Amino acid sequence: MSFDRRALLAALAAAPLVAQASRARADAPTQGRLVEHPQMASAFVQPRDVTVWLPPGYDASDRHYPVLYMHDGQNLFDASRAPYGAEWGVDEHVARLSANGQIRTPIVVGIGNTDLRLREYIPANLIAALPDDMRADVQAIYGGEPLSDGYLRFIVRELKPFIDRTYRTNPGRVDTAIMGSSMGGLISMYALMRYPLTFGGAACVSTHWPIRIEQLTDPAALAAWRDRLTEAWTGVIKADLPPKGGHFLYFDRGDESTDAFYAEFQSRIDATIRGEGWTPDRFRSLVFPGAEHNEKSWNQRLDVPLVFLLPTQ
User: Fold this and answer.
1) Selection from 203, 220, 222, 224 nearest residue 211 by Cα
2) What is the pLDDT of residues 293-307, one digit of tens each?
3) Per-residue pLDDT reduced to its tens digit, 48-92
4) Which of 268, 97, 89, 266 minimizes the C-alpha distance to 185?
5) pLDDT computed for residue 5 by the predictor
6) What is the spatial distance between Cα 302 and Cα 310, in angstroms, rounded to a whole number?
7) Do residues 309 and 201 make contact, with C-beta atoms less than 8 angstroms apart?
């Protein structure tokens, strides 16, 4: 049976897909309060919805909070808005962990994705580091040249100042973190590299390192392609990650569905970061046996990156 291999690869890279269909909104999150900022304008990217979750007790106090920025905002709080009908359950996780004293309670900012998601989430420095013959191939997977620098400028220069003006935040680096899954994992890592004075931590869940589905039947060709790409990208990560000791960086993956293809990439990235002196209290890379590449799996393990990114001490 014939199939479009490049289209298949692009489909895998796209998960979770952009939510374009209109869906009914749940009345309220389980705990806390949601504030919608629809179609927020930007000088750097096209407009997008932003959803802010305020934790229980926010309205009854004058307390200031750390802030967690999260990508793919459609998937975070409300299953009725999520393209696959499953959410991360961020409000439930954060409220429970906070009530138990396991994390510093954050405001959570969900940044909606758009039809340019892939180009906004692929790190420009990783693409620039590829050999010429690979660069065109990888860019084709994602639909064109990266738009990630503009997307991060939107977050750092426009969205974060708006959030800090509008809500009671602790705006410093140690109280500002960023998290995403799949391609959102890549852009979270890139945010930490590009703006280490803004973000104190990044969680990269089921990070989507490029894979070549069309070569899976040829192990030697796949290995050669993977080695060249990984060599280029480990060099960038070694050069651009902030120095050890001042930031938190978290990776994880499952071993089922799309996540099953990440092991070789992730292990080499991990070795590079550890080789730069990052220790377990600041860097963690975990494998969750049986976990797949979807919101249900990310919901099930969300406690782990939250506790790591927002420690109480």
Assistant:
1) 222
2) 999 999 999 999 999
3) 999 999 999 999 999 999 999 999 999 999 877 777 667 899 999
4) 266
5) 42
6) 12
7) yes
d(CA 37, CA 34): 10
Phi and psi angles of residue 178, each rounded to the nearest 5 degrees, phi first: -140, 145
Cβ(272)–Cβ(229) under 8 Å?
no
pLDDT (average), residues 211-215: 58
Residue type, 284: R
Residues with Cβ within 8 Å of residue 188, at least 6 apart in sequence: 71, 178, 179, 180, 202, 203, 204
Q: Rounded to whole angstroms, how far apart are CA atoms 244 and 147? A: 28
- Decide if 176 contacts 199 (C-beta within 8 A): yes
- Distance of CA 113 to CAs 27, 42, 45, Å? 22, 14, 11
Using 50, 70 and 90 to split pLDDT, how confident is the model at 9? very low
The length of the chain, given as a count of residues: 313
The rounded distance, in Å, linking the Cα atoms of 162 and 43 is 14
Give pLDDT tens digits for 233-272: 999 999 999 999 999 999 999 999 999 989 989 999 999 9
Closest listed residue to residue 114, CA positions, set 74, 158, 161? 74
Could you tell me if 219 and 256 are in contact, meaning their C-beta atoms sit under 8 angstroms apart? Answer: no
The residue to which tokens 């994880």 are assigned: 252
Distance separating alpha carbons of residues 193 and 228, to the nearest angstrom:
22
Distances (CA, A) of 264 to 207, 211, 255, 275: 12, 10, 12, 17
> Closest by alpha carbon to 167, among 45, 61, 26, 39?
61
- Please give the model's pTM, rounded to 2 decimal places: 0.90
User: Where do we find the tokens 């590449």?
Assistant: 293
Environment class of residue 270 by beta-carbon count within 10 Å: exposed (0-12), middle (13-18) or buried (19+)? middle
